[in-house]
């Protein structure tokens, strides 16, 4: 499987992935050619797409960092909803409710 096939282009990442593929293809072509030192037009085009790819990668990184921050906030909310203190209070109130039940329901009761 080549690089293009591995890069499944879809959704909002199409700009970044397109730039990345163009940059990789152009870079490979320029580096493989023996007379690339004399082909300033191709070199300029590859440099331009590399600059664009660098900018796109920065925007993609910012988007991922934002998503990561949102996920961390969700984790905090979930962790707070499963707060051990809250669970312990709930268990304690259940235990108090059971302790207030009649003594005859306890297995060690002398009422039998």
**Low-confidence sequence ranges:** 3-10
Order of helices and strands: HHHH
Helix proportion of residues, in percent?
over 70%
Q: What distance lies between the first and last C-alpha atoms, to the nearest angstrom?
A: 78 Å
Strand content: under 5%
The global form is rod-shaped
User: What does the radius of gyration come to?
Assistant: 32 Å
**Distinct helical segment count:** 4
Let me know the number of strands: 0
Largest sheet: none
Structural class from helices and strands?
A: mainly alpha
Mean pLDDT: 75
Tally of structural domains = 1
Key features of this structure:
single chain; 112 residues; mainly alpha; disordered N terminus
Q: In short, what is this structure?
A:
The chain has helices at residues 3-6, 14-32, 40-81, 84-99. With 112 residues, it is an all-alpha fold.
Textual characterization of the structure:
With 112 residues, this protein is mostly helical. It has one domain (3-99). Helix content is 72%, strand content 0%. It contains four helices and no strands. The protein has helices at residues 3-6, 14-32, 40-81, 84-99. The chain is rod-shaped and about 95 Å long. The chain starts with a helix and ends in a 13-residue tail after the last helix. Residues 3-10 have low confidence and may be disordered.
Task: Note the topology.
Elements: H1 3-6, H2 14-32, H3 40-81, H4 84-99
Helix pairs in contact: 2-3
């Amino acid at each position: 499987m080549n690089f293009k096939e591995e890069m499944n282009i879809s959704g909002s990442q199409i700009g970044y992935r397109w730039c990345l593929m163009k940059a990789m293809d152009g870079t490979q072509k320029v580096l493989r050619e023996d007379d690339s030192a004399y082909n300033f037009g191709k070199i300029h085009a590859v440099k331009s797409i590399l600059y664009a790819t660098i900018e796109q990668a920065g925007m993609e990184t910012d988007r991922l960092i934002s998503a990561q921050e949102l996920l961390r906030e969700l984790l905090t909310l979930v962790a707070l909803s499963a707060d051990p203190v809250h669970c312990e209070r709930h268990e304690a109130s259940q235990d108090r409710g059971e302790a207030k039940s009649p003594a005859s329901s306890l297995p060690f009761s002398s009422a039998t």
